[in-house]
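User: My advisor, Dr. K., asked me to get a structural model of this assembly before our group meeting. I'm new to this, so sorry if the format is off. These are the inputs:
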Amino acid sequence: MVTLEQFIADRQQEFEGATGAFSKILRDLSLGAKLVSFYLRRASLAGFLGELGLTNIQGESVQKLDAMANRLLINLFSKNPHVAGLASEEEDEILPLNPDGKYVVLLDPLDGSSNIDVGVPVGTIFSVYRRLTPSGTPCTEADFLQGGRKQVAAGYILYGTSTLLFYTTGQGVHGFTLEPAAGEFLLTYPQVQMPPQLTYYSFNDNQLHEWAPGLQRYVADLHAHNRKAPQSPSLRYVGSLVADFHRNLLKGGLFMYPGTLKKPEGKLRLLYEGYPMAWLTEQAGGKATNGTCSLLDVTPTAIHQRTPLFLGPASEIDRVTAFLNEDVPVEAT
Ligand code: AHM
Ligand code: MG
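Assistant: The format is fine. Below is the predicted structure of the whole assembly, which you can bring to the meeting.
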């Protein structure tokens, strides 16, 4: 049995020399995961469910547990000397922390807010960058707006039937399961690869009439194919990105949250949700795009920027892209 701690320690040398800075960040994330997991399991008994009565910068209602997870993770990282600053989906501005820190951390503290009150899995998404600004000065937005290819670590914690932590540092994707009795994350999914076939497809089609015509044709084609094929992919959509992504990562599936005519930028956030999931997807052998180009190549302009998001097996992402670009003749569908 390999603990997360041991796994990180073994790789620390190859990743950053032996400073231990990055390892301490991952340790804080795993501690945060254990604490958030503990609060989630007690939520309905302890009165932590429901709305806080505030809206965040995205104009979305903040749940009590959103705020709790956000506060808890900020507290943890503010005591970490290696973290120069933090950006969170729940905070209007970046939070400069330790001026001597080498890294900045981005968080979606509790993703899948609409599922918190109903016992459906939710998650935490994280992404880490080496800061650009000189050590000894407060970090700035530029440290957070480096682009997805500059991530040095990204991952998620899924609070489901078990608590899982999956991450990448660019050497593949590795997954750990929390052993509650020992309070340790144990390596259960080394070198995860996304199966190349389309087992599942996951999207909310309530705005399908507002999607690009090519994408509407893709969906019609998927359904037409399902009527004919003996082994057809199935719909699975939870509405928590972490849960939907995790299932598709292990089983082979397409996740999409496109833009609409009224909201071409889509719903999901480029920095907190898009980049980390895109990097995990690529590291697991899949593809990630915004419908036009590889998501990791999109240049960020604002910390709370939104993006259309398509994640999945490479061949299916190519198919979606061909439909989106109107490269598939109408008579072929
Ligand atoms: P959140 O960060 O406020 O929780 O919103 C993001 C969530 C994702 O987890 C999920 O993929 C998506 O919103 C679901 O949206 P919808 O309810 O429109 O299908
Ligand atoms: Mg989110």
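One thing worth pointing out at the meeting: The longest strand covers residues 103-111.

User: Perfect, thanks a lot.
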